[in-house]
Amino acid sequence: MAGGTLYIVSTPIGNLEDITLRALRILKEADYVAAEDTRHSLKLLNYYGIVKPLISYWSGREKVSSEAIVSKLREGFSVAVISDAGTPGISDPGAVVIKRAIEEGLTVVPVPGPSALITAFCISGLPGEEFIFTGFLPSRQVQRLKKLAELKRESRTIIFYEAPHRLLETLLDMEAVLGSRGAAVVKEVTKLHEEVVRGTLADVRAAVEQSTIAGEYVIVVGGVREAGMTEEEAMSEIRLLMKKGVGRKEAVRKVADEYGLSKNELYDKSLETR
């Protein structure tokens, strides 16, 4: 028996109207809907008048639930997997279900749609040629600082998810490790209280400190700009900052951090060119 089909269905990340016609058709036609949180998913299904048997695969039970889903697929039933929001499998326990279906040689079909990381990235205003997605940083600060240190020389734009209760401490750690570079904090994207704060890491951290921290967040951080930055260009930028009233050490630190250059070498060079 060939088995049934596992559909990976993207659902709205906030606004319930952000769903494709194909996604609605698959949800209506599937024999079962596997949901990360059935209570949450019922809001979407009820909104569109879709009534289906539900299978829960919330984090902590994804291994057990994946076996139940695979069993249904082996019997020839079709199952539509949805997450609480966005695309299943991306920082989501649905990844376990998808992996098991692939291991069993079952048919897995993507039904693309909304994704919080792509939506936040496109409105961040940061370079869009290349990016990397790191999901959630470690909750423990020691591990978080280690991970950020690994990303310090990354030249591509970096996208993170973060929980509201860790947002401020994460931004403080980013500022300390990554230095002065462009960033955007996107709150509640596509929802009623959607908000985007753009600027340097220091700017967005200061803005967050003055705001009500609640909801879901995506942090987008510009990569280090090493390519094409000559010593002469770096010195020119340092002099410009100093003319604006920034102290020599601070000006050197800002430029060195942003472009991945040596602070000591730039400082010595700035003294030579006074």
Explain what this protein looks like in three dimensions.
This protein is of the alpha/beta class and 274 residues long. The chain is built from eleven helices and ten strands. Helix 2 links the parallel strand 2 (32-35) and strand 3. It is elongated.
Quick description:
With 274 residues, this protein is an alpha/beta fold.
Known CATH architecture of the largest domain: 3-Layer(aba) Sandwich
Q: What would you call the shape?
A: elongated
CATH class of the largest domain: Alpha Beta
- The amount of helix comes to 40-55%
Report low-confidence residues grouped into runs of 5 or more: none
Oligomer status: single chain
CATH topology of the largest domain: Cobalt-precorrin-4 Transmethylase, domain 1
Q: How many β-strand runs? A: 10
Strand numbers in spatial order across the main sheet: 3-2-4-1-5
**What's the number of structural domains?**
3
Q: What count of helical segments does DSSP give?
A: 11
How much is the radius of gyration in Å?
23 Å
SS class: alpha/beta
How would you name the CATH homologous superfamily of the largest domain? Tetrapyrrole methylase, N-terminal domain
Share of residues in strands: 15-25%
Q: How would you sum up the major sheet? A: 5 strands, parallel
Topology as a string of helices (H) and strands (E): EHEHEHEHEHEHEHEEHEHHH
* Average pLDDT level: 90
In whole angstroms, the N-to-C terminal distance is 80 Å
